[in-house]
């Protein structure tokens, strides 16, 4: 009989464990803790074997839940950012742009010193100098540091804002961009000198002034921005808002694309061992 009782007791314990496990999984679903739901059995087993205090067990599974939430958040923010692929600090040729340093850009990518203040970052330089690559790399690093970023060609965003204006929803469209800590406007100088286009661009700059940050890449210095904004007063007002709290980076280097094309055209050159030998007298 005692033997039978022990078997029954183990059976009751086993049934209770199954019920408790099922109930716990339901509770974790209700609390939206998917990482803990997956990981708790293995950590519970390790905890039982090693005699962890309850606090250590809870802290361990909570840390994994937080890490998984962070991973999923970054994944979502990368999708919405629409960054060009492959543009990172590691793939950027800092040696070709000696006026900036990787350390300086990495410091900007922390974000705290300027995004919290709604400050701006302006990258100037000729076409092919790496402005878009650098802007995208900064955007990627900011996302990895917990910020929300949108990368867009200036012309594309301006066209969307024009549509919103025609639909009497420009203010709403600009307000929706507030969810991004940084909007990267690539190739600002390619906006055509059209009153409708430049006016929505100006309204975007004005709306984000001292509240949300902009990163702008431009091929032309401020002195040429009258080609972007047809109204001189609007040009001055836009520049004034952008530079009031801004870091300005000049990237006046030879076009990377042109440099690469010339190197391909020249080829690797004749190896030293096959070079023409001088005739010694």
Concise description?
This protein has helices at about 1-30, 35-50, 55-80, 100-110, 110-115, 130-145, 155-165, 170-175, 195-210, 230-245, 255-265, and strands at about 120-125, 150-155, 180-185, 215-220, 245-250. It is an alpha/beta fold and about 280 residues long.
Into how many domains do the coordinates divide? 2
Q: Tell me, what is the CATH class of the largest domain?
A: Alpha Beta
CATH architecture of the largest domain: 3-Layer(aba) Sandwich
The biggest sheet, with number of strands, parallel, antiparallel or mixed sense and barrel status, is: 5 strands, parallel
Q: How widely separated are the two ends?
A: 115 Å
Main-sheet strand order equals: 2-3-4-1-5
User: Which outline best applies?
Assistant: elongated
Helix/strand-derived category reads: alpha/beta
- Averaged pLDDT, please? 84
Count of helices?
A: 11
CATH superfamily of the largest domain: P-loop containing nucleotide triphosphate hydrolases
Report strand %. Answer: 5-15%
Q: Please tell me how large the radius of gyration is.
A: 29 Å
Q: Report the CATH topology name of the largest domain.
A: Rossmann fold
- Helix fraction, binned, reads 55-70%
Low-pLDDT segments: 1-6, 269-281
List how many beta strands DSSP finds: 5
């Amino acid at each position: 009989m005692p033997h039978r009782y022990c078997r029954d007791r183990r059976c009751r314990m086993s049934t209770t464990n199954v019920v408790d496990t099922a109930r716990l999984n339901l509770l974790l679903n209700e609390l939206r803790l998917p990482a803990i739901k997956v990981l708790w059995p293995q950590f519970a087993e390790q905890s039982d074997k090693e005699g962890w205090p309850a606090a250590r067990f809870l802290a361990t599974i909570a840390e994994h839940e937080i890490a998984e939430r962070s991973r999923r958040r970054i994944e979502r923010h990368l999708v919405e950012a629409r960054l060009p692929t492959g543009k990172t600090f590691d793939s950027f040729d800092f040696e070709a742009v000696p006026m900036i340093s990787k350390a300086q850009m990495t410091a900007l990518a922390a974000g705290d010193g300027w995004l919290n203040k709604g400050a701006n970052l302006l990258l100037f330089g000729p076409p092919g100098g790496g402005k878009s690559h650098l802007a995208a790399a900064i955007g990627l690093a900011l996302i990895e540091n917990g910020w929300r970023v949108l990368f867009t060609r200036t012309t594309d965003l301006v066209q969307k804002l024009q549509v919103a204006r025609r639909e009497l929803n420009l203010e709403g469209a600009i307000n929706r961009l507030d969810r991004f800590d940084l909007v990267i406007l690539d190739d600002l100088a390619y906006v055509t000198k059209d009153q409708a286009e430049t006016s929505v661009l100006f309204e975007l700059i004005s709306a984000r002034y001292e509240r949300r940050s902009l990163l702008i890449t431009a091929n032309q210095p401020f002195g040429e921005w009258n080609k972007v904004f047809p109204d001189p007063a609007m040009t001055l007002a836009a520049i004034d808002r952008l530079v009031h709290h801004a870091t300005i980076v000049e990237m006046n280097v030879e076009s990377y694309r042109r440099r690469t094309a010339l190197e391909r055209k020249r080829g690797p050159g004749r190896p030293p061992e096959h070079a023409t030998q001088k005739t010694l007298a």
